[in-house]
Amino acid sequence: MTLRAMRCCAKLLSHSWAAGKDTDDAVRAGSGHSGQIFSIANMPTVVLMDSSLSMTRPVSVEGSEEFQRKHLAVHGLTMLFEHMATNYRLEFTSLVAFSSLWELLVPFTRDYNTLQEALNNLEDYDKTCLEAALQGVSNVVQQEWGTSCPCQVVLVTDGAMGIGRGSLRHSLQTLKQRTDDKKFPLPFPFPSKLYVMCIANAEEFQASDGLDNLEQLISLNGGEGQIYTMEGPLCLKSVQTMFGKLIDQAYSPLHAVLRCGNLASDVQVFPRPEPVLIDEEVDPIPKTVQTDLEIVGFVEIGDISSPPVISRHLVLPIAVNKEGDEMGTGTADETEEEPSTNQMAGKSPNFCVLLHGSLKVEGMVALVQLGPDWFGMLYSQADSKKKSNLMMSLFELGSEPLPWLGRMSQLGPASDAAENPYGEDDSKSPFPIQPKNKRSYAQNVTVWIKASGLQTDVQKIFRNARKLPEKTQTFYKELNRLRKAALAFGFWELLKSVAELLERECTLLPDSAHPDAAFQLSHASQQLKLASTGDSKYAAFEHNIAPMLTDFSGGGAERM
Fold it and tell me: pLDDT for 541-555, tens place per residue?
């Protein structure tokens, strides 16, 4: 399947191949990316480390007389940091320690040496109070990223969640007895996943309700996250296995093959796309992105516009040597003496690099099939003036995710059309596709997309206000139009501000002004103030402000 809006694929690719070396060098085999590469598909991590006294309990490990649970936790986190330094080295990570209080040891950084040093110098404190620590994590993330950036929280603890007031058990038991200013910090106000790494095995939880309490934490976070426990005895091998599962689950990109006809390239997708559920199904089965990503055609950026998407992901090529083994995208520790994997891969043609340059030069996007009735788009997005990245956005599930393009299965090559749908000089476009049934609209709807539109509507009111009472009819018509729009948007402040401006306008009336003008302005101001309070009598959407009836004659005041 290809697109009706598609230009010839050979023309598109050949343009980029001859477009020069600059684009190729900027994206070849994952090299040349700026430090902002992951700001587009960012998912920072907060490591929440338990530093209470219970973490100092000894464990029996061969060859070590004093080995504590804290040392196992440090070993596991070291393994995680080493993995992220190699594969997620441009991702942001923060380290928070907690006991009865919490402390931000390392703010969000990409320097994993700093994180490792702080972890090695971690001190021991007193009892465990997890609620305060979770509130601290919420504050740290919101101060740095706000509430829209998804974040992963890795809680490392021994499962001993304290006793008495301040313990996790006490916090969960008092959930329904709290006031609004003392709410439990879960769910977090930002999209998140909570991973609990327990330096304990399942047998230790059988005699307590610790595991049940931790599972309730995951439930409070919307079910987003998972609990990991150690299998077998508490030893280095067990903790490596546990953190290995976390890495596979949360810190491994999707490895896929990007295809376009006979061209193909092995790629990594960061972060790994999440499974998607269809709400309409009785027994929904999670839909996952398949490992074969098939490009079905190309379309102009102007035609695709700015479509709604589920998520956005970074696409990087995987260098493959002659024997077929993956070489990765290179690390930061490569020396000048030995050729880096990036340099070696840069000498080999790569379809992913070619596609990126093509889309950037031609100003187009590639539509890619992610699975049955599931599509997305590949496009070039700039980090700076010189650097850009190949991105993939996932559309909603369905055969018609973008109504203005129509059904994907009905699109085809532009060359199949009787005449060029874009015109001889590319002066027109076949999109958007008009619906079969023409929709009728009973009245115009007030829309304020830009500040200038709102300013124009307010100015109309005051132009008519200065011509009262001759323009009474028009004045109240514009006033009621603005009032209804403000009520529909919940824009109470606008009503109050316009009311204050009307009061000011009343005080600025010249001596020659008709007496009725002052009455009408004061009346309109009072009615807007009443509406801004939200009172059901005066803030009803159907209610219209009527002119004030006065006894002045000959003033030309109109009656509604």
Answer: 888 899 988 876 444
